[in-house]
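fyi for ur records
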Amino acid sequence: MKVTLPVWTIAAPIIAWLLYLIPGQGMGAVYLGLLTIGLFGGVLAAVHHAEVVAHRVGEPYGTLVLAVAVTIIEVALIVSLMMAGGPETTALARDTVFAAVMIILNGIIGICLLVGGARYKEQTFSLNGVSAALTTLAAIAVLTLILPNYTTSAPGPVYTSSQLIFIAVVTLTLYGTFVLVQTIRHRDYFLPSHGEAGDEEAHAAPPSLSTTAISSLLLLVCLAAVVLLAKALAPSIEQGVASMGAPKAVVGVIIAAVVLLPEGIAAVHAARANRLQTSLNLALGSALASIGLTIPTVAVLSLISGLTLTLGLDIKSTVLLVLSLFTTMLSLGTGKTTVLPGVVLLVIFAVYLFTTVIP
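which gave:
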């Protein structure tokens, strides 16, 4: 059965690239508005193409495709902004990675549990797979975002060069081991249960090889357009944050939100279709890829460029991170969910956003 692609999913990345390449001098706010529309069009198209690829390759490889692809874009965006901003952006990687983890654990998973619970009352998932992801995420988050505050070889929330190299290797080892477990050793832990996937989409014939190849190419085109448009909008975002008198950490939240939008939409869509396992694979896989690939890459960049990489969180952020990890583990600790944990996680997310703007 041949699966054709909607015209808008092909047109969106082309329009996004044209908006980026065509100069907009003198257009002011109109051009910024067009860039924003192009950005979200690219994001929505990326979601569609990622789902096509995911349907073809199956679980859990499909969710891994989107997680790694979007994380590569996140890394590219952070690196480009750090190189352009210099010493003033030493905390950008920390702020963005922390924001990504908070958005995923509280925002995306919270919405998924709320939407799924409201529609189906109770949903189930594989406890083994989720436990493996949360265990790995907790270890990486503490080692990269909390431990730097308590080492004594260098003053401040930073690692020395040798410590940074060691933590980068440890982080990559943990993430690589998780991917090995997810895709080879214990792949069955991350597969949807037989009672799941009751929608027509889950039982539809997979797309053809040619359609999958086109979607794979368009996915890369969409993600590249998203990062370039986000980079073009970054100065305006920074100016807007500064004019509001908000902390610089808000920039990291905005970057993470834009980058995670494709995965967020895909995860919520899966939860609404009663495919919570796929939804959690997407969300937790994204969190792991975000922190597990971004920190080592930025660590290497800082060592090469000589920039001091600020990693340690302040006390307020540390409390919220620990609370998020603890609450998520309890919420996903039984293999079944209802609307209650979804509401709890969304409340924590609201507290995080509020205290980021008004610390």
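Residues 197-202 have pLDDT under 50 and may be disordered. thats all i got for now
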